[in-house]
Amino acid sequence: MTNPTPRGTRIAHLGIAVESLDAILPFYRDILGMPETPLDDADGARIKAVAAGESLVELLQPEKSDSPIGKFLAKRGPGIHHICFAVDDLDGMLARCKAHGIQLIDETPRIGAEGKRIAFLHPKSTAGVLVELSEY
């Protein structure tokens, strides 16, 4: 689906893997003063988000150790898990990535925590960074 008013690619959110939402949320919300934004849980993670200007910081706590975030924490510990870029035309961007040899994790978009269509690109193709693409 193409956005009728193109906005260009922008940072939608940073995903940060955490061991405990209760332990870290007060830092972002109460100390840094970032307002909480409600999000649904997704992909086996409990999610709390805070606004950072027009972008979000998503705090991701695994529901189970074998979830994607659980595996990430076991292997790497807490820290930045992914960066999400909002794009005007997700299907077109995925086709463009594929045409340029970028390895796709999600060949077909799916619904993410914000209720928007998303797809992930493999870190092997993006200098070691897990990239999520999202529609506006």
From TrEMBL:
Belongs to the methylmalonyl-CoA epimerase family. It comes from Pseudogemmatithrix spongiicola. It comes from the Bacteria. Keywords: Isomerase, Metal-binding. This is Methylmalonyl-CoA epimerase. GO terms for molecular function: metal ion binding; methylmalonyl-CoA epimerase activity. The keyword Iron does not apply. The gene is mce. Gene3D superfamilies: 2,3-Dihydroxybiphenyl 1,2-Dioxygenase, domain 1. SUPFAM superfamilies: Glyoxalase/Bleomycin resistance protein/Dihydroxybiphenyl dioxygenase. Its EC number is 5.1.99.1. GO terms for biological process: L-methylmalonyl-CoA metabolic process. Residues 10-136 form the VOC domain. InterPro entries: Glyas_Bleomycin-R_OHBP_Dase, MeMalonyl-CoA_epimerase, MMCE/EMCE_epimerase, VOC_core. The lineage of its organism: Bacteria, Pseudomonadati, Gemmatimonadota, Gemmatimonadia, Gemmatimonadales. It holds the Pfam family Glyoxalase_4.
